[in-house]
Amino acid sequence: MNLSTSQQRTLLSTATFAAIVMLIGTAAEFAIQTWPLKFGELNWRVGSFGLFLDALAKSIPGLALLYFAAALSDSRKVLKTLGFLAILLGVLAIPALGMFALDGVQMRATLPQQAKGVFTKVALRAALMGTLSAILFISTGLRTLKVLKSGGAVRAGGTRPAETDDNMLMIARPAAPARPNLTAIKGDEPVKVVEA
């Protein structure tokens, strides 16, 4: 499908707007559920840390859509900002996981026996999602910044750069030439055709 530049911009701005709406919705849901702040209450801390870890996981589709829209529109500033934001969120998740674990153990001891099983399942799910989200956010942020620093030319792990042969004749031709470009080749020299 060949889209004009204005059609591409329209689709990218729509995707960006949708991503922002998703992220604002997730942040608003977290803020509403944790307001007012009650850091002195164990129940509130456990619930808030669990909701924060859950909000991280819920924000992944919106951030992914925002990443793709920024990458397709070649917006390096937005990608750099998203890279730093992803690293920040991933790093913030680490102490939140620690606090959630400590408060969760303390709270589990106060629960009646029949509620401990359900609490443990919910807490383990939140901890797993928080851990995976932290790993995803930190690795995505670091990879984004690495790609931007290299100018977009990052070699995949385990691959070698292309070998060059100084004895090889290279012929470059445009992808859609206006007229044929004929080049004379000596008898036994290898030929390499490169798309320009």
How would you describe this structure to a colleague?
The chain is mainly α and 196 residues long. It has one domain (5-149). It has five helices and two strands. It has helices spanning 5-34, 42-58, 60-72, 76-110, 113-149, and strands at residues 169-173, 191-195. The chain has a two-stranded parallel sheet with strand order 1-2.
Total DSSP helices: 5
Helical content stands at 55-70%
- Overall 3D shape: elongated
Beta content comes to: 5-15%
Distance between the termini: 22 Å
Uncertain segments of ≥5 residues (pLDDT<50)? none
Number of structural domains: 1
Rg (CA only): 26 Å
Largest sheet: 2 strands, parallel
Number of strands: 2
Q: Please state the average pLDDT score.
A: 83
Write the layout of secondary structure elements.
Elements: H1 5-34, H2 42-58, H3 60-72, H4 76-110, H5 113-149, E1 169-173, E2 191-195
Parallel strand pairs: 1-2
Features:
67% helix; 196 residues; single chain
Care to give the gist of this entry?
With 196 residues, the chain is mainly alpha-helical.
